Amino acid sequence: MKKFMSDLIVTENTPLNDQYFLLKLKAENELPVIMPGQFAEVKVEDSPSTFLRRPISINYVDRNRNEIWLLIQIVGPGTLQLSKLRPGKLLNLIYPLGNSFTYPVRKDANLLLVGGGVGIAPMLFWGAQLAAEGFHCNFLIGGRSQSNLLLLDEFKKYGEVYCTTEDGSSGEKGFVIHHSLLQNQKFDAIYTCGPTPMMKAVAGYAADNAVFCEVSLENTMACGFGACLCCVTDTTDGHVCVCTEGPVFNITKLKW
Amino acid sequence: MVDLKVNLGTLQLKNPVMTASGTFGYGTEYYDFFDVSRIGGIVVKGTTLRDRQGNKYPRMAETPSGMLNAVGLQNKGVNYFAEKIYPTLLDLDTSIFVNVSGSTVEEYVETAEIINELDHIPGIELNISCPNVKEGGMTFGTSCPSAAQVVKEVRRVYKKELMVKLSPNVTSISDIALAVEAEGADSVSLINTLLGMAIDSETRKPLLSTVTGGLSGPAVKPVALRMVWQVAQAVKIPVVGMGGIMTAADAIEFLLAGAAAIQIGTANFIDPTAPVKVLEGIEAYMLRHKINRVTDLIGALEI
Question: Which residue among A240, B90, B142, B165 is buried most deeply as judged by most CB within 10 Å?
Fold first, then answer.
């Protein structure tokens, strides 16, 4: 897939809580083909301590408006600077990068998409694509408390939504891996993105139940397109770049 | 039209802009962004005799105006390069160098011998300066006798352009440069990364799996510029300068300090079109200053 480096125009920047914001970016020309699970490397201007680009998952692609959405968590000066971008500003992206999730074989497959923290980002675009292809999705979303459960109305457009919070303020209390859904239903495929302990727990559940499972990794990287070799993960094929061989990996390939 | 051709020992480059090893893959990673045949040279990823998995993750930490890396020469070995990657590079109209590293002198020699047989590779960059491997690498490049020895042995078997990449992690880089020049190096390139480290104060842990790593980016540029200037005055062979070059102005500073050509490294990660932007910027500078030949800039520092 061809990669592009181009300036996109900020059309909306919506704070979702004190930590997260949603950036909507419009492309001047028609957006290229973008697959669910792919990401962009975002250039941060006016932040002297931010030297490298920031890899950010594609949260959603709105073809009608020719926009892409980036759901971003403020974790340092770079993402803080991005949170201050006002509509009309230009943002330089290298995209689309990385591989994508794998479609299930059968249309009647029971699918579970698990997201935690900023890891919910790729699950919206993937869920929307699955729904458009006629698949039925169950979303399981975890957060520290109710205020951390984001974009629920968007997720509800594409399937059933289940939640857990660590403080019990919404949905079932605990981590996603403790949700009753995992005991009550049998799934044909699980897709997950979020903190590594969460993904490992979900991957463990999938392995125990012999369910197809893909995880999306968020390793730190310098380039995002396979040149720096910094973002490697250990797989059955040795060290491979998360930016080009991933970010989506079948759990059978990972040495977790 | 300005004349951008530069001579690098036995070789002529069509322009002085090259890309640094380990930052440009095998060139193919950049095809979507620009026509890589426009630049003067590409130095492909560090290559060793046998497959290397490199160091454990995490291998990278962002630092003020730069980054630390501890990749550790991950590559699939010289035979894989010769059989699988080399054929994909044959159509490129630029000078392709292979960066060669090893744990022992014998490994350097054997790897260089294999690359000597590849017609479309006019030169190697002998890496005696990688700070991220336990054996070999920088250990060869930090003392004059060991640097001289590995160059001497490789020179016996390698018949084309032999460029030697020097480490800045030494007391006198000029002495090392003189030592490798005396053993037949055609040119020297510098600087490799500066040994550094980064710590997370909250967790009390290092940010790199290897604790220490190599610093690159604009943070090292003043050090690199100083070393290029010193080495260019000490040796007769051409010097290839690198270290934090982000813009054409940076590149011209290195030429003025005495570099015959420059390499762009870390900038490629942030702007994959950096090499062509630097090239176009050099041309614009030459037109603005009415300089016809880029070689007139080499060592033209006025003190």
Answer: B165
CATH 3.30.950.10 for domain A4-97, yes or no, is: no
CA distance A43 to chain B (A): 8
Which residues of B are designated catalytic? 130
| Cα maximum dimension of chain B | 57
- What are the residues whose beta carbons fall under 8 Å from the beta carbon of B31, sequence distance 6 or more? none
Tens-digit pLDDT profile for chain B (303 aa)? 899 999 998 899 999 999 999 999 999 999 999 999 999 999 999 999 999 999 999 999 999 999 999 999 999 999 999 999 999 999 999 999 999 999 999 999 999 999 999 999 999 999 999 888 877 778 899 999 999 999 999 999 999 999 999 999 999 999 999 999 999 999 999 999 999 999 999 999 999 999 999 999 999 999 999 999 999 999 999 999 999 999 999 999 999 999 999 999 999 999 999 999 999 999 999 999 999 999 999 999 999
CA A41 to centroid of chain Cα atoms: 14
Which sequence spans correspond to the domains of chain B?
6-297
Q: Any alpha helices (H) in B57-137, and if so which ranges?
A: 78-80, 105-116
Contacts of B30 in chain A (CB under 8 A): 227
Which residue ranges make up each domain of chain A? Answer: 4-97, 110-216
Answer yes or no: are the C-beta atoms of B235 and B185 closer than 8 Å. Answer: no
Q: Do B269 and A233 touch (CB under 8 A)?
A: no
Residues in Cβ contact with B289 at an 8 Å cutoff, skipping those fewer than 6 apart? none
CA distance B233 to chain A (A): 33
Chain A residues within an 8 Å CB radius of B266: 222
Is CATH 3.40.50.80 what the domain over A110-216 is classified as, yes or no?
yes
**Strands in B153-229 per DSSP E:** 161-165, 187-190, 194-197, 199-200, 205-206, 212-216
CA A204, distance to chain mean position in Å, is 20
- Kindly identify which residue of chain A lies nearest to residue B213, measuring between CA atoms: A230
Q: The domain B6-297 is classified under which CATH number: 3.90.1150.10, 3.40.50.150, 3.20.20.70, 2.160.10.10?
A: 3.20.20.70
Q: Which residues partner with A94 through β-bridges?
A: A5, A41
B28/chain A closest Cα distance in angstroms:
9
ipTM for the assembly: 0.95
